[in-house]
Write a structure and sequence with these properties.
With about 450 residues, the chain is α/β, with parallel strands linked by helices. Helix content is about 30%, strand content about 20%.
Length: about 450
Amino acid sequence: MPFTASSLLIRRARIVLPTGELLVGDVLTSDRTIVEVAPEITKATPTREIDAEGLTLLPGVIDPQVHFREPGLEYKEDLFTASCACARGGVTSYLEMPNTRPPTISQYALDDKLQRASQKSLVNYGFFIGATADNLPDLLLAKPTPGIKIFMGSMHGSLLVDQDAALEAIFAKGDRLIAVHAEDQARIQQRRAEFAGIHDPAVHSQIQDNQAALLATQQALKLSKKYQRRLHILHMSTAEEAELLRQDKPSWVTAEVTPQHLLLNTDAYAKIGTRAQMNPPLRSHRDNEVLWQALRDGIIDFIATDHAPHTLEEKAQEYPKTPSGMPGVETSLPLMLTAAMDGKCTLAQVANWMSQAVAKAYSIPNKGAISPGYDADLVLVDLNTYHPVRPEELLTKCHWSPFEGWNLTGWPVVTIVGGQIVYEKGKLHTEVRGQALTFNQ
């Protein structure tokens, strides 16, 4: 559906400004853009007005790591269902990973995803180009893309790049951002053999242990420093990696953490079994605490969900036949806002970690802040009400969450994408379409 010009006036919201300050006031949008932010806007005749008294207005979440399964695995999720879940969760833009079928390893495959998203996605979208051992020309030229994704471990097929020579060739040529799934494949294979025959899913965290993550992150950091290459470390999960970056983090290196690695740990296996299985795995209570501190100190730069849905039937198999991954786009913002209400962080930090810092790291223009001239991607949340995570209310196609039963605040009331209301008080406006993100790299 073509975009229809409109204006929107949000009144009496508690606005989280780019400085981190809070302003009770109004925001006016026109077409896709924020045009004014003020304590009161009087000279405006908007197409639509929203009374946001008692609600908090945040920049729309940019989720920089998701697996939306299309093409090839649409029975788990597709770009439409995933973007519906995004809208409900306050996620207005996402960066999607290349491990689909076929994988996104060429301009042709990238164009195919962009075309699909233009027809199906209710929110804004971007797609990584996936590295293989022999697609360097594609990695240098494919566009638009936020960067190159390298699976250093816990992957199979062409997307596994675990040979030193292949990794060095990718880091050595070009200047595009490289995002790494940092797990050491050789160590994983060795420990898989050691723990063979054990069906308790808790062994997953021992097979893909802290050392496997640290070894790969050390290697990626070494190559990044050797070639002065822009590096992003995906879903950092261990205290050791956080401490490594605390000691040695070049200005061109960034890192992210998932809500799962902040809020869940190996205790979850006893409660939810294989639903707690993900890559890299859940860690210890100590890892939780060290990661939180690294995030608060700016050693870790932002939040991503690693939304990776599988069916309940798949998750019900016996370990190690079960796939790794869990959904996350609907719960990430309420989880982080609940943490803020619990005193673990501030509202301003959540807005930075989930919007502004992501836009900065990936050079996405005009995103991530509530300021005139920025895109009108916004989310109004209710911080006065708590509501449990209920599987029957989830819009992700897999209809489950590792956080089922958790009582959370900060659920989105209204989500706005490019000045258009895409989600409002439980109702989706499925005619809205997001736009392809651009990257100033």
